[in-house]
User: Fold these one by one.
Assistant:
Number 1:
Amino acid sequence: MSQRNRYNLTDLMAQCDSAAPIPDELKEWDQAPSVGLEQTIMDGQVDIGDVILQFRERLADNYAVIQLVLFGNRARGDYHCESDVDVAVMLLGLTCTQLSNPS
C-alpha cells in the first residue's frame, strides 16, 4: 500500500484562489450559520469532552437528546491536532426525513 500524502490547513489554503466563484451546490453550506464551536475545538483550547457537552446543551434546546456517541479517531485515541470530532446524535421521536424537512 502506498503512503498517503499528509497536508495541513496552511498547505491547503495556500493552494486556494479566494477570488474563485463558489459552485451553487456549495453556497448553502458556505453561508450556513456557524454553530459556534469550530474555533473552540481547534488547537486544543478546551477539553473535547467539554465541547461535546456544550454541543449537547445546544441540541437539547430544540430536540429530545437521548445519547451522544463519540466515534472515529478521537474515540480510538489515534487523533492529531487537526482531527475533526465525530459525534453521532440519538434523538427521541424524530426520523431523518423529519429532521431534513421540518414543517
Number 2:
Amino acid sequence: MHVLHRICALGLLCATPGWASTDMFGSPSVSRMTAAYDPDAQAVLLGDAPDHRIFDPQVEPAGVYQPQGRVYGVQDPFAVSGPGVVASPGPMATLGQPMIAPTSPYFPQPSYNACGPVDPYACQPCYPQPLATPTPIVGTSALRPAHAEIEGRAGDPAETLQGNLMVPFWQQQNVHWFFDIRGQYDDNRSGEGNFGVARRELLSNGLIVGVYSFYDLRHSQFNNNFQQGMVGFELLTLDWEYRVNGYLPFTGTQATGVNSSSVQGGNIVVQQGLERAYFGWDAEFGWLMWRLGGTYDHEVRAFAGGYYFDTDKAGFPSIGGVRARLEGRLYDLPILGAGSRFTYGASYQWDDVRDNQWLASVNLRIPFGAGGRSYSRLSPIDRRMLSAIRRDEAIVTGRALGAAEQAVISSNGIVATNVTEADTAAEINNGGPIVVVTGDISTNTTINVDANQFVGGQFEVQGQNSGAKATFGKKHTITGTDATKNVVEIANNSTLTGLNITGGNHGVFSGGLGVSGFTLSNNTVTAPAADGIHLEGTINGGTITGNTLTGAAGTGLSVSALESGIISENTASGNLVGIAVVGNMTGGAISGNTTTGNQSVGLGVVGNMTGGVISGN
C-alpha cells in the first residue's frame, strides 16, 4: 500500500507541468513531503498510525516545532532505493489534489531543492530552516483560528448558560497570544463577565507553557456587584496538563438584605446579612485517559484538584475542598468543519461550607474568522494550544452575619428590650411589656393581653441604627380547648400579632364599653364556636389588618360599633358571616378586605352608617 501511494504521488508530480520533472530534480527518485514534525517522536507525520512516520535528520536540528504546510527533504527508510514520496498534512496523499505545500505567512516560497534517497543526508528542506524568533503576524492566524463557545451547566448551585470568545491577536510560529472573554447568567439571577488575556508558547520539547490574567465582574443574587483580578499558570502536553490559579478581590463587604433576629440577654437584636468576595487559589492536574481516532477524534480526560478561599474579615468561614471532573471531547464535527469541538463532562466538588456539589455540562465550539472551518484539521498539538483555560467559573463569595444591633418593633417603633419569652398561657399572663411566643400553647383559660402590652409570634423588627429589617420568630398556635371560654382578650393600646388562634368561644375578644388604640395584625383565627374576632362596645381608634378568619360558627370579624379605626386587608371565608359592623358606623375605614364562601353575608353594616368609608372590598 505504501508503494502504491509513492507511485501515484510520483506520477502526479511528473504529470504536472512546471511542477516536477526528471530534469528539475536530476533523479527520478525524489524524497520529499509536506507534513508536520512531531518533536516527541522526532519524526515527520504522514498520518496517525505508527508506520506513517518518516524520520527526518534535516528537521530535527531546527529545535522548534514545524507547523503543517512545511516542505522538507527527508530520509525515507521505507523505500531507500525506490521512488520518492510526496504527502499532504494528515492522511496519506491521494490523486485527488496536487501535492502543493500550503502557503505560510512565516516562510518564503519553496525553492524545490531536492535529492535522491541514495544520499538523504545531503537533502535540504524545500523551505529554509526557520529563525529562532520569526517575524510576528498581527491578527487572527489561519493556523489557529478564533472561536466562539456556548456552554450549559446543570446541577449545584445553579443552572447556568455561558458564552465564550477566544480571539488570537498576536501569533508567532510557536507563540500564541489571545483574548478570552466570557459571560454567564444563572437561574439565581446572578451574572458574571470575565475579560482575560493569555499567552501560550510551545517549547522544542513539546511542552506548552501558558500564563493568563483576568478581570472579573459579578452581579450576585442579592443585587451586589463584586470585582476581582486573577492570574494563572499552566503546563500542557499532548497527554497531561497542570494549572494553578490565584484570585484577589477588589470589592469589600456588602449587605444581602437577608437579615437575622433573635433574643439575646432579654433584648431582640438584629444582625445584618453580609456578603463578601474571597481571595484564594485552586489547582488541578489532568491526564488523557484514552483517545479514539475516526471521524470525530474522540478523547476522554480526567482531572483532580483542590481549592482554598478565605477572607480577612471575622465571621466569614473559610472554604477549602477537593474537586474532580471527567471530560469527553469530539473534534472536527462534520457539520461545523475543522476546528469545531463538542465537549461533555461531569464534575464533583466538596467543602464543609457548600457541602457536596455535582454538575453536568455540555459545550459547543465553533471556529470563525481567518482559518475558521478550514478544510485541514488542526494537529493534536495545535488543538492543545487552543484548549480552554480552566479556572473557577465565578467569583467565590461567602456569607456571614454582622454584629448584633438593638432592634425596634417596626409596627410601633418600640425598642425591643425587657422581652419575655413564653410558651405557656401563664407566662403570657405574667409577662412584661413585650412577650414573644416561642412555642405552641394549649389552654382552657383565657389569655389576657394587658393595656400597652405587646404579644407576638412572628413580626418585623429593624435595627435601631442601621434600619436593617428582619422577620422575628415563628407563627405559633394558641389553641383554646374550652368552647365556652374566649381564647385571647385584648385591652386598650395592646397588640396581638403573628399568631394562629384556634378553637374556644371567640378567638379574640374585647368586652365592656369598647377598646381603642389596639392592633390586631397578621393573625389566623380558625374554627371558634362563636366569632373569630368579637369586639364589643364602640371602637374608637384601632387597627385590624392582615388577619385571616375561617370556619367561625358565627361571624369572622364582628364589631359592635365603629367610630374610628381601620379594618383593612383581612380575609374572611367559610364563616356564617364574613365581616360585620353590628351597630352603627359613624367613622373609620373598611377597605381592601376579601370575603368568600361565607354562608350568609360577606360584608355589611347592620346599623346606620352616618360616616366613615367602605371601599375596595
Number 3:
Amino acid sequence: MNNSNIDFLNRKAESRLIPQKSNDAYKKEYDKFMKWVEEQKVTDISERVMLAYLQKMSEQYKASTMWAIHSKLQCLLRQSQLVQLSRLWLRINKGVDIKLFAKVHAFMKAISKNDVAKKAYVFNEEDLRKFFIDAPDITYLFLKVVAICGIFGSCRRCELCDLRLHDIKEEGSVLIITIRPSKTVKARRFTVADSEAISYVRLTEFSYDMIRGNVPIKWLVLIHLDHVPRKLHVILNWMILQNTRDMLFDLAEMKGGIIHQETPCTSATIMANSGMTTDQIQRQVGWKSSAVATGYVEESISNKKNVSNIIGSAINGSSTSLSSELTILI
C-alpha cells in the first residue's frame, strides 16, 4: 500500500471522528480559531497559545459554551494536518492533543467553578394536569398531543418531526410509539397509557383520526412542527390566565428551546420525582451517559422531601416505616 493511499484512508478515517450531525459546528469553531491564529501570526500551536485564545473566549462566553469550544478544538487539532494561512505555513505535526496541556485543563476547571448553568424551563405536574383536563380540546388538542408525545417519550424536536402515523401502534388500551433512529441516537420506543383522571390515548387517537381524514400524507399531526415553539407559548399563556402558578419570566427568552429541551427536561424531572432510578431515566430519555440522569435524581424535590421526612422521623423515634420511602439513586 503506497503512501498516497494510506494518506487517503487516514483522512477518511479522521473525518469520521467528528459527529456528522455536528460537522458544520465543529468546522465553524475551528475556522474561527485558525483566523485568530493567523491574526496573531502564530506558527505553532502550544499550551501558551491555547491559554491565550481560551482566555479571550472566556471574556465573551459562559463556562458551558467554553467547554463546547474546548471539545471541538480538541477533536480537530488532534488530527495531523498542514495548514496554510495566507503567507504563513502553520505546521501541526502529528496533531496537537490539547488534552495534554495541564494548564489548559486547570483553566477550564477554574472558569467552571461557581458557574451556575441556566436550566431549561420545566412544566410541573400540576401545570400539566390542569392543562390536559381544563384546556378546551377545540383549541388545544394539537398542543396536547405534542405535550403527550414530548413528555411521555422524552422527545426532542427532531424526533417529533420524524414521527409518522405508522410509527404508532395500538395494543389494547396502550399506544406503542417508535422513535426513528438518527445519526447519533438509536431507535427507541415508548408507550402512552391512560390514567384515572386523564385519557391520554383518547386525545392522541382523536387527533390522529382528524389527520387521517384531512391530510393526504403519512406525516403525523406534527407536520407544522416548525411553528411548535411559538405555539407552545400558548400553553404557558393559558397557564398564566388560569393562575396555575406565578410565572414571572420572559417567554421570548425561551425561543425554540422550549420543544428541544423543555419536554425532555420535564419528562426527566417527573420521572425523578416519581422515584424512578437513574438507569430507568437514562434508558427512557436515551442518554448515553448516566451523569445527566443522576443530576435530575439528585435535584429531585420529592427525593429531598423523603430525606427530610426520614431525618425528622428518626429524630422523633419513628423511622421504621419511612426508610422504604427513600431510594438513594446515584
Number 4:
Amino acid sequence: MTMRIQRALAADNARHADRLNLRVLVDVGIVNGGGRAFSSQLVINQLRLIESEPVRDVTNAGADALAMFTSPRVHELTIRAPSHALPENMAFGQPVTIVDRNNQTLQAWPLLVADRRARSA
C-alpha cells in the first residue's frame, strides 16, 4: 500500500508545481471518540510530532512524497517480534526527538520505504 501511495503522489507532483507531501505517524494506544473528533494524550502527542519542525525536515529532505513514522512503542514491537520482520524494502531511520512546550519529550522513528521496482531496474 505504501508504494501505491508513493507512486500516486509522485505522479500528482509531476503534473503540478505545488508539491504534495504526506506525513503518517503510526502508534498504538487508547483513543477516545468525541463528536466529530478523536481525543486522548496519544492523539495530542501524534499531532505535536507530525507537525513539528524536525519531522517536517525529514519529510522535506526525502525524495519521496510519503514520509512514514512510528512511535517508540510500535518501533519496539516491530524490532522485537521476529514474526513481524519488516519487508526487505523497509528500514527504520534515526529517531526524531522533540520537546514540547510542557517539557515532554516525544519521539518518532522514520520508516524508510524503497521502491522495489527501482531496486530491480
